[in-house]
């Protein structure tokens, strides 16, 4: 079975092909009758151990738009509460013969572990601070549709890079596609050795914004900060929050992106989040399309047997 566990392992051609397929899914999703029958008869299970608004609902809509039977496992009211482990839960669900399992979990490597234990395709919908591949793909689709390309653009990723699976997946994808990637954060929120991922590192946001084509803001992930440095909101916003003043340093038509959920007044001001350069709502629309494309590619019978990840 074929899986999507991370952007690492995808070739630039794999990525382009998924984005092309997602463009077709956007067209389907903009018709009054938003249905294809490509996954008719297939069973999709969403297994979310961490909170989600965008990812879970878009995976559900994506499956339904392609005719799959979609089941959302309610982890909060499941036997997880009685001590059942992730693997026992997964093996139990696997016995119900799903075709694809979508998993979000707080532990890095959870999706890869599951993929070894179940007899169906697995998609990583976010594993700890490791990877969130469909997020990076939807970000790439948003950029490609707005600018016509990804290669050669300067993308500044700003905020809590240390705890961000979104940043990690985006850095890998954007580098693979030939973009120049900058990261900007207080040094306490940068992973050690981040330079080795092929990014330019800034601890002053203003410097990182100069001439950027795309500004991607990240939320402070307080849920992953137990016992470590938590910045004060007021100070953080002053130095690392994106407002209209700071945005002027980027290119005049720079795209403003945020994977959500946003904390307004912490990493981003409403004037920019809701302003003319913001493509945050486009990102959400592209999320459904990318998830349609990914599941379609993984379950495509014409490509079964291929070792390519997507
Ligand atoms: N961007 C993202 O993963 O959002 P959710 O946590 O709401 O799914």
Automatic annotation (TrEMBL):
Binding site for carbamoyl phosphate: 54-55, 104, 132, 135, 260-261
Reactions that this protein is recorded to catalyse: carbamoyl phosphate + L-aspartate = N-carbamoyl-L-aspartate + phosphate + H(+)
UniProt: L-aspartate binding residues: 82, 165, 219
Boundaries of every Aspartate/ornithine carbamoyltransferase carbamoyl-P binding domain copy: 2-144
Top-level EC class as recorded in UniProt: transferase
InterPro entries: Asp/Orn_carbamoyltranf_P-bd (IPR006132), Asp/Orn_carbamoylTrfase (IPR006130), Asp/Orn_carbamoylTrfase_sf (IPR036901), Asp_carbamoyltransf (IPR002082), Asp_carbamoyltransf_Asp/Orn-bd (IPR006131)
One of the record's GO molecular function terms: aspartate carbamoyltransferase activity
Residues in the signal sequence: none
Domain Aspartate/ornithine carbamoyltransferase Asp/Orn-binding: 152-297
Protein keywords: Pyrimidine biosynthesis, Transferase
Pfam families: OTCace, OTCace_N
Annotated metabolic or biological route of this protein: Pyrimidine metabolism; UMP biosynthesis via de novo pathway; (S)-dihydroorotate from bicarbonate: step 2/3
Listed EC numbers: 2.1.3.2
Function: Reversibly catalyzes the transfer of the carbamoyl group from carbamoyl phosphate (CP) to the N(epsilon) atom of ornithine (ORN) to produce L-citrulline.
Protein family according to the UniProt entry: Belongs to the aspartate/ornithine carbamoyltransferase superfamily. ATCase family.
Oligomer and partners: Heterododecamer (2C3:3R2) of six catalytic PyrB chains organized as two trimers (C3), and six regulatory PyrI chains organized as three dimers (R2).
Protein name in the entry: Aspartate carbamoyltransferase
Species annotation: Nitratireductor thuwali
Organism lineage: Bacteria, Pseudomonadati, Pseudomonadota, Alphaproteobacteria, Hyphomicrobiales
């Amino acid at each position: 079975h074929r899986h999507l566990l991370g952007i690492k392992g995808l070739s630039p051609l794999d990525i382009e092909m998924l984005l092309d397929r997602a463009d077709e899914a956007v067209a389907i999703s903009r018709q009054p009758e938003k249905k294809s029958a490509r996954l008719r008869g297939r069973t999709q299970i969403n297994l979310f151990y961490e909170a989600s608004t965008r990812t879970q609902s878009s995976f559900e809509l994506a499956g339904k738009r392609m005719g799959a039977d979609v089941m959302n496992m309610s982890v909060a009211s499941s036997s997880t509460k009685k001590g059942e482990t992730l693997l026992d839960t997964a093996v139990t669900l696997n016995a119900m013969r799903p075709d694809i399992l979508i998993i979000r979990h707080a532990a890095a490597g959870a999706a890869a572990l599951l993929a070894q234990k179940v007899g169906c395709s697995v998609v990583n919908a976010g594993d700890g601070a490791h990877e969130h591949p469909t997020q990076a793909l939807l970000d790439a689709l948003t950029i490609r549709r707005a600018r016509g390309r990804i290669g050669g653009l300067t993308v500044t990723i700003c905020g809590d890079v240390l705890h961000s699976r979104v940043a990690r997946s985006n850095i890998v994808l954007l580098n693979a596609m030939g973009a120049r990637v900058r990261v900007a954060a207080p040094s306490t929120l940068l992973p050690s050795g981040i330079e080795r991922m092929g990014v330019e590192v800034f601890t002053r946001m203003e410097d990182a914004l100069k001439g950027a084509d795309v500004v991607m803001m990240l939320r402070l992930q307080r849920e992953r900060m137990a016992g470590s440095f938590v910045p004060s909101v007021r100070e953080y916003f002053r130095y690392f929050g994106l407002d209209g003043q700071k945005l002027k340093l980027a290119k005049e038509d720079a795209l403003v992106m945020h994977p959500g959920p946003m904390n307004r007044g912490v990493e981003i001001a409403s004037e920019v989040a809701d302003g003319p350069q913001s493509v945050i709502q486009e990102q959400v629309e592209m999320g459904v399309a990318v998830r349609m494309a990914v599941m379609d590619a993984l379950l495509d019978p014409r490509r079964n047997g291929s070792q390519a990840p997507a």
